[in-house]
Amino acid sequence: MSTSHSPSALGAEARAHFDLRPELTQLNHGSFGALPTAIRLAQDAIRLAVERDPIAAMATVRHEGALRRVIDGVASRVGTTGDRLAFVENATTAVSTVLRGVALRAGDRVVTTNLGYGAVERALEFIVARAGATLDVVTIPFPVSGPDEVLELLKPRLEGATVAVLDWITSATALVLPIVELARVCRESGVKLLVDAAHVPGHLPMDLDALDADWVVGNLHKWGFAPKGTAILWAREGGDRLLPLSISHGVAHGFPRAFDWIGSRDYSGWLVAADAMAFADRWPTLMADRRRLCAAMAERIAERWGTTLPAPPTMRACLATIPLPGALASVEPATLWRRARAANMEVAFVVHEGQTWARISAAAYNHPDEYERFAGLVMEWVK
Ligand SMILES: Cc1ncc(COP(=O)(O)O)c(C=O)c1O
Fold first, then answer.
1. 374 falls in which pLDDT band (50, 70, 90)?
2. Whole-angstrom Cα distance, residue 27 to residue 201?
3. CATH architecture designation of domain 8-33+284-382
4. 165 Cβ closer than 6 Å to some ligand 1 atom
5. What is the pTM of this model?
6. What are the φ/ψ torsions at residue 355 (nearest 5 degrees)?
7. How far is the CA of 129 from the centre of ligand 1 (A)?
8. Which of 220, 281, 302, 345 could form a disulfide with 340 if both were Cys (CB 3.0 to 4.6 A apart)?
9. Where are the beta strands (DSSP E) in the chain?
């Protein structure tokens, strides 16, 4: 087991643990993560066991509490206990689960920001409109000067609101918001807070019980090395009124056990979730190391492109959104994505406020040379 690395040594060593196509430069870990081969094999073994003896294998989940043991393992890694944590399919499902469970009424005001993820915005619009409530979207400028600017803009708008839906790490703009301070403001103002932490498990340290939120949703399939379709939903004490979207046998148990059996499905991804999160233990400095790599590479790329990073380092972790040089900022993301793919390079190109940006990530398997190649490729496009 390795304990400390240079960014290049970690990237090269880690790459061998993933199934990624050898020619592919993967600088978009943020969208769907990447599954270590060992976790894929563990999941395959569970699927095989189900096919060999379906009734007995499914009974472990439905009747024998197999998921509860896994959830306890995951809980200990995100600062909580299993009695406050449920598995859900993904962040999208978790957000709808919470919002459809909140009894919004006409006249209620729900606060969010213009940096939210599209699917979450759509869910908010739908649910708020159905209840006759108001959606109050606070504009956070991008570029942003720092966490204080975010706090100053949100504080007055949180006053008197019913519910707030705020990101911990934003999607297209890749900003780490001051979530601890925001949760405190919500608590002091009597506002219920749903934190969209889709990108956070395995990316930043989490202490869910210490964070003064009401609900937190997080994907394990992005940075937690878990199979796609594996996410967590945390609720503070009293979360017992929260129920899954599909009501099933366990409804009488309330939160979280009502979420454990939601009908016949493939539970193999959830069953390997604790092992997936433990996969990172082989690199004890992984989070800090990748954050440093991302910071250094974002600065290097912006310098080569002659552009300025839109946020201070305190608001970035292992994702960074970088302004593109020259006229590329007005080219459609799909066009740039196709050009990058033609060079075997996967990078997220995102649109925010009518401008196209590049969003890079720093995962265990990334190496500084990959970012240099990406910076150089874009400079060729400029020419
Ligand atoms: C901030 C944020 N919320 C929610 C989601 C939705 O995640 P999923 O597609 O796993 O439901 C994403 C996906 O990238 C995201 O970035």
1. very high
2. 19
3. Alpha-Beta Complex (3.90)
4. no
5. 0.97
6. -115, 145
7. 22
8. 345
9. 25-26, 85-88, 109-113, 134-138, 163-167, 192-196, 215-219, 231-235, 319-323, 345-346, 348-352, 355-361
Atom index in ligand 1 nearest the CA of residue 31 equals 14
Q: What spacing in Å lies between the alpha carbon of 138 and ligand 1's midpoint?
A: 20
State the pairing for strand pair 215-219/355-361: unpaired
> In a mutational test of the pocket of ligand 1, which residue from 89, 117, 166, 361 has the highest number of ligand atoms less than 8 Å from its CB?
117
CA of 92 from ligand 1 middle (Å) equals 6
Per-residue pLDDT reduced to its tens digit, 347-359 = 999 999 999 999 9
Fold for the domain defined by 41-279: Aspartate Aminotransferase; domain 2 (3.40.640)
Residue pointed to by tokens 């769907």: 32
What residues does each domain of the chain span? 8-33+284-382, 41-279
Give yes or no for residue 92 CB within 6 A of ligand 1.
Answer: yes
Tell how far the Cα of 164 is from the centroid of ligand 1, in angstroms: 17
Burial 57-67 (b: 16+ CB within 10 A, else e): bbebbbeeebb
